[in-house]
Design a protein that fits this description.
InterPro entries: Aldolase_TIM, Chorismate_II_sf, Class-I_DAHP_synthase, CM_dom_sf, CM_II_prokaryot, DAHP1/KDSA. It comes from Flavilitoribacter nigricans (strain ATCC 23147 / DSM 23189 / NBRC 102662 / NCIMB 1420 / SS-2) (Lewinella nigricans). One of its GO terms (molecular function) is transferase activity. Its EC number is 5.4.99.5. The protein folds into 2 domains: 237 residues, Alpha-Beta Barrel (TIM Barrel); 100 residues, Chorismate mutase (Chorismate Mutase Domain, subunit A, Up-down Bundle). It starts with 16 loop residues before the first strand and ends with a helix. The chain is an alpha/beta fold and 364 residues long. It has an 8-stranded parallel β-barrel, surrounded by 5 helices. The chain is elongated and about 80 Å long. Bound molecules: the ligand C=C(O[C@@H]1C=C(C(=O)O)C=C[C@H]1O)C(=O)O. The site of ligand ISJ has 11 residues, from helix 11, helix 12 and helix 13.
Length: 364
């Protein structure tokens, strides 16, 4: 679907876009205190969750509609624009009624097309900017689908928030970033404003800067970070929230990079290095093609001798020696195994094709 998108801010050239505020609005005092501390930091949008989707019942589920009045006060007192999460039609009506400037759709809503459609229908006819978080599962289609549903409701000021993806297993992240999914979205929709929610990716304070910097290095348009006057006392997501002073330090230390430049010397050097990369890619794939020809021959030979394709001893041997080789070349074990697994699978597919081709010949 072709989309003509506009900037979510009045100043389309403003980068980075800084969104900060508490995970949840808890009390009027807490909201106003955070806002007063953040206002001098020139942030673009003040965030606070009013309705909180929680994993299990019994946790704090947000103060609800009364909290919208506090956000209105934030606007009146500080002049900052405000944003909150909406998940249902009623949330949209209330948020618009209370002059919320920007809406965001949360990860647990993006996964459900029924909910996204309900929100889209409620927004229809109102030109309010909408930020769409990635779905909790790594499904780019759902993310794109949510963007399209909101766009079809007539909203042109759309941005996305990358907050990472659920993962069952050991990881230093609360939600693993899987940067490639966001990069693919950006490739398909280059005009889409992309914000990194480092708080939900990290789930802890000590890595917030690192992830925010990585997003800047990947040319994201901005960050969304949870800020609380006394993070340890927060009613939700206490572990990942930081104080306004810590947030200021984080932003001050971030290095913002330009998407590109017209500096001739830079472009020439880049072009030269890229030619070398092109050459290497060429060689790599020529070699891989040749490797698959050998796999085809092995497949034929195995077929004639009725030997199975998978040979775990050999596969293990390749893994071990290549991981060691990779290590010596500064390549991470994760990278080497990912590449090797893909090569191994392609080799198996080639041998499968060889074997089934021979089989059909016999059958015919
Ligand atoms: C090519 C073979 O078949 C499979 C593919 C391998 C590979 O591509 O390196 C290794 C072991 C087998 O699981 C083989 O047995 O050598």
């Amino acid at each position: 679907m072709e989309m003509k998108l506009q900037s979510i801010l009045d100043n389309p050239h403003k980068r980075p876009i800084i969104i900060a505020g508490p995970c949840s609005a808890e009390t009027e005092e807490q909201v106003l205190q955070t806002a007063r501390d953040l206002a001098p930091q020139n942030i673009d949008l003040f965030r606070a969750g009013i309705w909180k989707p929680r994993t299990r019942p019994g946790s704090f589920e947000g103060v609800g509609t009364p909290g919208l009045k506090w956000l209105k006060k934030v606007k009146e007192e500080t002049g900052m624009k405000v944003t909150t999460e909406v998940a249902k039609a009623e949330h949209v009506y209330q948020a618009i009624k209370h002059n919320i400037d920007v809406l965001w759709i949360g990860a647990r809503t993006t996964v459900n097309p029924f909910s996204v459609q309900e929100v889209a229908d409620a927004i229809e006819g109102v030109d309010i900017p909408v930020l769409i978080k990635n779905p909790i599962n790594p499904d780019l289609g759902l993310w794109v689908g949510a963007i399209e549903r909101i766009y079809k409701a007539g909203v042109t000021k759309i941005g996305v928030i990358h907050r990472g993806f659920s993962y069952h297993g050991d990881t230093p992240f609360r939600n693993v970033p899987r940067w490639q999914i966001a990069i693919e979205l950006k490739r398909r929709f280059p005009d889409l404003v992309m914000i990194c929610d480092n708080s939900h990716i990290c789930g802890r304070r000590d890595t917030l800067f690192e992830v925010a910097q990585q997003a800047m290095d990947l040319n994201y348009d901005g960050i969304m970070t949870e800020v609380h006057p006394t993070p340890d006392d927060a009613w939700s997501d206490a572990k990942q929230q930081i104080t306004p002073a810590q947030f200021q330090e984080l932003v001050n230390n971030l290095v913002f990079r330009d998407a590109t430049t017209d500096d001739i010397e830079f472009l020439e050097t880049l072009d030269h290095l890229r030619k070398e990369i092109d050459h290497i890619d060429n060689e790599l794939f020529n070699l891989l093609g040749h490797r698959m020809e050998l796999a085809d021959s092995i497949g034929q030979y195995k077929k004639r001798n009725n030997i199975s394709i998978l040979q775990t001893t050999r596969w293990n041997e390749i893994l071990e020696k290549t991981i060691a080789l990779g290590q010596a070349k500064g390549l991470s074990q994760e990278f080497v195994t990912t590449v090797l697994r893909a090569i191994h699978q392609e080799s198996i597919n080639h041998q499968e094709a060889v074997m089934s081709a021979e089989e059909s010949k016999i059958g015919g």
